[in-house]
Amino acid sequence: MLKKFLREAVAIIVGKQSEGIADLLNTKKHMNEFLIAKKLDLTVNQTRNLLYKILNYGLVSFIRKKDKKKGWYTYFWKIEVLKSLEFLRSTLVKRTDQINYQIKSRETKEFYICKRCNIEFNEENALSYNFTCKVRGCFYN
Ligand SMILES: [Zn+2]
User: Fold this and answer.
1) Hey, how many other C-beta atoms are within 10 angstroms of the C-beta on 62?
2) Which of 8, 22, 56, 82 counts the highest number of beta carbons within 10 A?
3) How far, in Å, CA of 7 to CA of 85, rounded?
């Protein structure tokens, strides 16, 4: 279950096709970004792009280590489980609110459809355009 939730949280940010990165990052120790790239079959730059996107939302953390010989830094990453779950929860709460709003407005408001243009107008819009279609000025009822 946790695995599924982590995948969902990551998918919201980087899309369904990249959600597998959540499984890789769900480790106790931070993981070498070159290894992540290899396992995902991506370049290191593509992998970093994904990781930085997720980092923007605080769902991953990193440490960096300097290679003493070569002098460059290698980054190691892992997922932040609690933050990911909180992110998923708040996203789902927002969606639920939107759906509830849609349900409420379907129950309480009138909608008008222009059959010619196949477009729907709510009451406010229909009224302000005097019950003509905003697109081509068709009349509808
Ligand atoms: Zn129309």
Assistant:
1) 14
2) 22
3) 10
Provide CB contacts within 8 A for 55, sequence distance 6+.
61, 62
What is the predicted pLDDT for the residue at 123? 87
Contacts of 3 (CB under 8 A, 6+ apart): 22, 23, 26
Q: How far is the CA of 121 from the centre of ligand 1 (A)?
A: 10
DSSP-H helix ranges across the chain:
2-14, 21-25, 33-40, 44-56, 81-108, 123-128
d(CA 37, CA 44): 5
Interval between CA 108 and ligand 1 midpoint (Å): 24
Which residues lie at CB < 5 A from ion ligand 1?
114, 116-117, 133, 135-136, 138
| Cβ–Cβ < 8 Å for 129, 121 | yes
Mean pLDDT rounded to a whole number for the chain:
93
Q: Which amino acid is at 48?
A: R
Element of type H or E holding 18: none
